[in-house]
């Protein structure tokens, strides 16, 4: 029989404490709607008493009809020198007009004395009065016991007393917080057992973990096994310092491996999409190694294994990637073999047989290029173009006849002047020759500008395309400035994103290769969309 | 009483299975030496039977006298259709001439049948024969039980039998591997208890975890609590798919929180430095949210908390950051920098007091430059030169009045022609002007050649110096080819090695800054050695 767990997302509140994670009110609304689609039970929208932006979020989100989620407002217990009904923070919480309120109070004696600057007894009164004041106004009232585990280690009796007061005053769930993130899983288990011993086996409690010991997910799972009914965390584990407990790992662990049920478990196939959406909105790169949802999470290297993986994926993957909406990736690496190439070709819409001699030629060429420093894992557009070339169907829409780049710093303090000139022929072999020039803030930028200027006359659709990312890696081998470099470029237009690669001892030459393949791929995609080639 | 645990690092083998983590043989040697300094017990250098590059690493590392670490070679049990003494893979393992060998065998019945394509009984013979064959030739022999936990779930008796055979044949440690990374901490505990029930309480075992369920660190700690004497993992958790167990989290958890001892525990204050060094060598950004060692791990936001944090750091930090060589960062405050700067200055032989106004100016300048993209962790020579400049003692031995770089590819197939011209004045301000030119195989290389040609006339000792490494990182911000780049250069002469940095939107300008600082530092070191400055 499966047990239910409720998922409480605090990406919009605790998550935004992360150094690089910033969301506007509009972003927050978009993320909240997406979390609702996923089936998150509670969405903590912010701390209205501390942030006017958060108050606006609560006003705006009321205009939307949510499918399942309930919005929570977060705030602290009342000020030590005030009474509950006169406290600004509690008032702001109620003004957020959310069905759920989460209120946090102090557990750790040193924080009561140092941060609150009050007595231990007064803190207990504050917790009780704050919970009691809010109780009649909300559907659900959660009590976050801040620094619970550290506080328990320091003074267990006092820590337990704070929980009792919150419960007596009407809190629905007592959420045990590892605020500093220093607690390890075996301690979580021991302390929760003590809590249940003193407050009763039926104590309704939740867990809120931080990742400072790299155990936030395990701590959350351990708490659930000990009976927690609510797990608080954030998407992709975003949060202050080392982040919060990562819901994108916790939810599939609970549902796929531990037999628990939650609403988001019904929409697990959307998990990867939602995880990437949240970082997309925040304009953060999505870390490729994220469990379950990262681009590398189901990536397999090596030729000999590929056929085995395709026959028996379960023996090489802890779960089927489709269950969380992720996909298996077979990396074309220097171990690659025929089956890899056939698999990739199928992704590009080319049906090849492993016995076809052209597959052998492609394998040889890829190996040769990888030995030279090319890498196709992040440059699948270059791989696709290479395959067509070896199949005797080169995709070429122009040829670069020559270029010149001049980078001049005429005086010690003046800025460099960078100019590129290019000569292209469109279409290749027979077409018109265009000779033009442009400047840029660096030599690669100038080359990019000059090439586009020359080509856009013939192919105005190149204006739709932009370069999203430009990466340089110096390859091992010759040390120092004579080394070979590999340039990886990511480009996109309105619909698609693609990667290309170039390698040379000359960084401009390598960049030029990757740029040319990027423009070429755009032109190829547009023709393919129109049914040509 | 504290218990001992041995740390087994596989960054150089399993770590390099990560999609973006590539190391040359030279890089591997540098990383191995650094891991030895940290006090890692075993360093797995590679799989000599599968990769000729790895065989070279084992030859080269023998020239170094390691302080503490022992090097391990990794390989598989012998081929099903061969005998142990005729097997190429086992031969390659012995040819690596390492004091330690780690050999992996199959535990999971489906892998025996599908991957090895042999019978269950034959697999047991293979394990036994392979271990027995290697045993007399090595000091330490470890047996990695691949897919142990999945294999145990499928057929516990068979999984246990593989361990017994490896132990009987002489393996020193039975390493239980969660190869697919799907096992959760409570399952690790249950299965290890079963192992001990059947193989005896004194079974000597280790743990090798992967992070596909986001629990690799917790799984490793759980295994240690159940008696594991060896933990295998990688620096920063780098590895295939979602990575391996992160030693940079495991080691401080074991030592600072669980009362275990290991050699690396004695050098914990160097953990952050080593963690960053490894990713620097691989030219990967160091994720800021990494527990213990990340730049954000001890970053505190907000003014009101600052004084409380400084008075009672323990109440806001799970450990003292200095214990792992990391630093507290108080965001939006210059308090974080001063002690750092004083500490660094002392390393450079400069005694400064934290109250000295020049320290404040240095902090400001460093912050300003870091905001622009400079980074001094791998470029201490640039930091030292900057400090002298702000102390009113600029070290300048020449000035670059101007340069011009021309990169010309006159035809589609011909190689580019790259030429640099430079104008320098030696000594600066008053000296002779030298105007010269040189070619190179790329624009940075040409600039390097021209600068040396101009300067060596005045400073022939620059001939002793060579550039060891040249790295480029594109900085986040403006996307595409208009982005800012950071260039890091490592140089050395007969005695010393140093790093310098340059930042600009123009890669040649950034390279030029780093080159100039590198030559300057060499000239400064030589004067200092002679007692001048």
Automatic annotation (TrEMBL), chains A, B:
Catalytic reaction list: pyruvate + acetyl-CoA + H2O = (3R)-citramalate + CoA + H(+)
Keywords: Amino-acid biosynthesis, Branched-chain amino acid biosynthesis, Isoleucine biosynthesis, Transferase
GO terms of biological process kind: isoleucine biosynthetic process; L-leucine biosynthetic process
Entry's EC annotation: 2.3.3.21
Pfam families with a match to the protein in the record: HCS_D2, HMGL-like, LeuA_dimer
GO molecular function term, any single one: (R)-citramalate synthase activity
UniProt cross-references to InterPro entries, sorted A to Z: 2-isopropylmalate_synth_dimer (IPR013709), AIPM/Hcit_synth_CS (IPR002034), Aldolase_TIM (IPR013785), Citramal_synthase (IPR005675), LeuA/HCS_post-cat (IPR054691), LeuA_allosteric_dom_sf (IPR036230), PYR_CT (IPR000891)
Pathway info: Amino-acid biosynthesis; L-isoleucine biosynthesis; 2-oxobutanoate from pyruvate: step 1/3
SUPFAM superfamilies membership: 2-isopropylmalate synthase LeuA, allosteric (dimerisation) domain, Aldolase
Family the entry assigns: Belongs to the alpha-IPM synthase/homocitrate synthase family.
Protein's recorded name: Citramalate synthase
Upper lineage: Bacteria, Pseudomonadati, Thermodesulfobacteriota, Thermodesulfobacteria, Thermodesulfobacteriales
């Amino acid at each position: 029989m499966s047990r239910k767990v409720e998922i409480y997302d605090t990406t919009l509140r605790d998550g935004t404490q992360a150094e690089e994670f910033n969301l506007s009110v509009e972003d927050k609304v978009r993320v909240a709607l997406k979390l609702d689609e996923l089936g998150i039970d509670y969405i903590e929208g912010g701390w209205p008493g501390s942030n006017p932006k958060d108050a606006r979020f609560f006003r705006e989100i009321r205009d939307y009809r949510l499918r399942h989620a309930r919005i929570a407002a977060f705030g602290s217990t009342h000020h030590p020198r005030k009474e509950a009904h006169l406290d600004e923070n509690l008032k702001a919480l109620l003004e957020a007009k959310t069905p759920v309120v989460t209120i946090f109070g102090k557990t750790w004696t040193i924080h009561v004395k140092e941060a609150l600057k009050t007595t231990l007894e007064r803190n207990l009164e504050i917790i009780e009065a704050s919970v009691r004041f809010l109780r009649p106004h909300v559907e659900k009232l959660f009590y976050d016991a801040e620094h619970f585990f550290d506080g328990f280690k320091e003074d267990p009796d006092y820590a337990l007393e704070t929980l009792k007061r919150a419960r007596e005053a009407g809190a629905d769930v007592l959420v045990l917080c590892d605020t500093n993130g220093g607690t390890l899983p075996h301690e979580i288990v021991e302390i929760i057992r003590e809590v249940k011993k003193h407050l009763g086996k039926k104590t309704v409690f939740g867990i809120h973990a931080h990742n400072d010991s790299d155990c936030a997910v395990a701590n959350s799972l351990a708490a659930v096994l000990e009976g927690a009914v609510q797990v608080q965390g954030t998407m992709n584990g975003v949060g202050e310092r080392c982040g919060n407990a990562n819901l994108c790992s916790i939810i599939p662990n609970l549902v796929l491996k531990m037999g628990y049920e939650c609403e988001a478990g019904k929409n697990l196939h959307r998990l990867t999409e939602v995880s990437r959406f949240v970082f997309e909105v925040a304009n953060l790169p999505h870390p490729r190694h994220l469990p379950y949802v990262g681009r590398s999470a189901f990536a397999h290297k090596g030729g000999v294994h590929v056929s085995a993986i395709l026959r028996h994926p379960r023996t090489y993957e802890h779960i089927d990637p489709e269950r969380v909406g992720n996909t298996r990736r077979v990396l074309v690496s220097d171990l690659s073999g025929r089956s890899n190439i056939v698999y990739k070709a199928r992704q590009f819409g080319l049906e090849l047989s492993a016995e076809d001699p052209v597959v052998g030629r492609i394998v040889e060429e890829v190996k040769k290029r990888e030995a030279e420093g090319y890498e196709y894992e992040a440059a699948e557009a270059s791989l696709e173009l290479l395959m067509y070339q070896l199949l005797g169907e080169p995709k070429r829409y122009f040829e670069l006849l020559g270029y010149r780049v001049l980078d001049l710093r005429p005086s010690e303090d003046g800025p460099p002047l960078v100019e590129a000139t290019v000569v292209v022929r469109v279409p290749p072999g027979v077409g018109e020759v265009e000779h033009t020039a442009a400047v840029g803030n660096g030599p690669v930028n100038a080359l990019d500008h000059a090439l586009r200027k020359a080509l856009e006359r013939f192919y105005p659709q190149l204006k739709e395309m932009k370069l999203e990312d430009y990466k340089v890696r110096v390859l091992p081998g010759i040390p120092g400035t004579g080394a070979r470099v590999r340039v990886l470029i990511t480009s996109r237009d309105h619909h698609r994103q693609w990667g290309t690669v170039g390698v040379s001892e000359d960084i401009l030459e390598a960049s030029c290769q990757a740029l040319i393949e990027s423009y070429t791929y755009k032109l190829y995609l547009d023709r393919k969309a129109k049914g040509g080639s």
